[in-house]
C-alpha cells in the first residue's frame, strides 16, 4: 500500500465546503426509495453529505438542499435522527 493516499473528499450540502468523506454524515436514498442515514458509508444509492454540525444540518434542511440533493422528500423522522446525530461529544 502506498504511504501517501489522497483522502476522498465530498462536499457538505450545508456549508458547501469540501471535507474528508469520513468526517461527514452520509444520507443515502436506497434503491428501494428509502432515506437512511448511512453510518458505514457503504450503502448503495444516491448519497448526500453533511458536516456533523447543527449549523450545516440546519442549512441543509431549511434550504431543502437535502431534498434536492436526494430528489426525495425527507421525513420528520429522518430529520430528527440527523439532529440527534450532531452536536454530541
Ligand atoms: Zn458543512
How does the SSE layout of this entry go?
Layout: E1 9-11, E2 18-20, E3 25-29, E4 35-38, E5 46-50, H1 54-62, H2 65-70, H3 76-84
Antiparallel strand pairs: 1-2, 3-4, 3-5
The structure holds zinc ion.
Number of helices: 3
> Radius of gyration from the CA trace?
13 Å
> Widest sheet: strand order?
4-3-5
Average pLDDT rating: 91
Helix content: 25-40%
List of distinct ligands in this structure:
zinc ion
* Overall morphology: globular
Termini, distance in Å? 33 Å
State the low-pLDDT regions, or none: none
Instruction: Please provide the count of β strands.
Output: 5
What is the H-and-E element order? EEEEEHHH
Q: Can you characterise this structure?
A:
- This protein has three helices and five strands; from the N terminus they run βββββααα.
- The model has no long low-confidence stretch (mean pLDDT about 90).
- It is α+β, with helices and mostly antiparallel strands and about 90 residues long.
- It has helices at about 55-60, 65-70, 75-85, and strands at about 10, 20, 25-30, 35-40, 45-50.
- A hairpin with a 6-residue loop joins strand 1 and strand 2.
- A three-stranded antiparallel sheet has the order 4-3-5.
- Zinc ion binds near residues 17 and 56.
Q: What's the gist of this structure?
A:
The strands form two sheets. This protein has a three-stranded antiparallel β-sheet. The protein has a two-stranded antiparallel ribbon with strand order 1-2. 27% of the residues lie in helices and 22% in strands. 20% of the residues are buried.
Amino acid at each position: 500500500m502506498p504511504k501517501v493516499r489522497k483522502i476522498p473528499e465530498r462536499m457538505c450540502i450545508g456549508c458547501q465546503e469540501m471535507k474528508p468523506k469520513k468526517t461527514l454524515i452520509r444520507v443515502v436514498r436506497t434503491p428501494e426509495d428509502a432515506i437512511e442515514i448511512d453510518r458505514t458509508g457503504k450503502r448503495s444509492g444516491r448519497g448526500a453529505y453533511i458536516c456533523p454540525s447543527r449549523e450545516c444540518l440546519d442549512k441543509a434542511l431549511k434550504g431543502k438542499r437535502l431534498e434536492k440533493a436526494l430528489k426525495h422528500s425527507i421525513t420528520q423522522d429522518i430529520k430528527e435522527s440527523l439532529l440527534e446525530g450532531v452536536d454530541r461529544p
